[in-house]
Fold each of these.
Amino acid sequence: MNLDDIAGIAHEPAGKPRGTVVLTHGAGGSRDSPLLQKICDEWAARGWLAVRYNLPYRRRRPKGPPSNSAATDQAGIVEAVELARSLTKGPVVAGGHSYGGRMTSMVVADDAAKVDALSLFSYPLHPPGKPERARTEHLPRISVPTVFTHGTADPFGSIDELRTAAALISGTTEIVEINGARHDLGSKTLNVPALAVDAALRLLDAAS
């Protein structure tokens, strides 16, 4: 298996990689989202091999949301993590934005792929305006260190709701609050990629 098999693009560090990071996109996006590009640049600057990749539904068609593709998308995430394990000898961090992060967390909860940490951006706790439709049932089965990077104005879940959800995870967790940001995590004042990578490295260091 290689990067082409997962429609992946690698951001390579200057020296020997400390580990591998694989990140994927939200429901309407692709591997080319500006957020993913900036986060992968940040990981590479810290000495990690960072890969942003397309989920299977996005490989099939260039636009539009996923449709009944959760099983195949999760299988694609398992492939990406397995590839990540073969690329370096260091730890593997996996995750993504919104839908991509949620699917990755479900793969890890099901023990279908082994990762050393999860990095989840704008985790979609529920559809906007429908808090009763929580997407948290699998979280208690996650035992790896998990970082949630989340905007305080995200309609898919408030910071308070996220704190409650994060408490379900048995592994260590950290919430990186991006003040004023919505679901796209845009911020004119905060360096979102740096804050997210800092948190992930803290949890990895604590776990090692």
Amino acid sequence: MELRYNPLLDDWTMVASNRKARPNLPRTDCPFCPGSGKVPDHYDVLKYDNDFPALMPDPPAPDPVGSELYRTEKAYGKCEVILYSPEHRVTLPELPVPHIEKLVDLWSERFAELGKDPRHQYVMIFENRGEEVGVTMPHPHGQIYAYSQMPLKIQRELSSCKAHHERTGRCLICDMNREEMKFQGRVIAENDHFLAYLPFFTDYPYGMFIVSKQHLTALTDFNHSQKQALAGILKEMTGAMDNLFNRPFPYMMVLHQRPVNGEDVESYYHFHIEFYTPLRERDKIKYYASSEMGAWAACNPSSVEETATELRDAHQRFLEKEGDGLR
């Protein structure tokens, strides 16, 4: 277990050979279910230290294979699992909004706690859903990684937001919200505090963003009403995705928040959630192939002005089906 420096990208690769021993889709004896001996017999949502972490508070020394060019570092950080429910087969859109509020509160608590360690540079909250994105545990859960090195994609996003602010005096993501609200054709839903839309530039046919309307940078900035609104729109949007093709919809969901240490980014950064959604049709995958991976030259096979209409219709069907269950 170690970090290896990539001089071509000025970035770091995590090496975690211990993760090869992860369980693969167990149908019985789930460690996250009450009665397993691994978790309490009663819980609503729960933080669980990852049994197969890629990053550790006390990592071993790197293998002696580095050099002046190929640097290595200890894989310092933290990997946590966030259990959404004690029920083995329930999914996020099936949970009541008050239960999802508890999840948002736990995310916020862990973001604050992990941010206290000065060696942590970024805390990323995320969920992988579905075998199509490599999920090995069906029990409803997400994860949190606390990185000691700033991830490259986040660096690029921060620098773009900073440059836009220096050029215009405005927040880039606030401007994106205004642009999407003006156009309307890519907006899926909104409530008092959040917008959900397929941004103009997304590289996935259903690559939704959920963005705070207020200029806030992290969950810890939210009041109770804002957390409640986030819980509601998370339920509705994941439910809409399931209704799109009448099947569990695979996705990668990532919360983008301010760095926990380092430069103050409050003036130019903005909380949002990004969904990376691998389906382009009910049983067809939108693959990241050579151009996307080799050149980072994203290619969306669909017009989001068309797929947004499909997702809005699926959202409406979800609202009609849920009725009072959304309150």
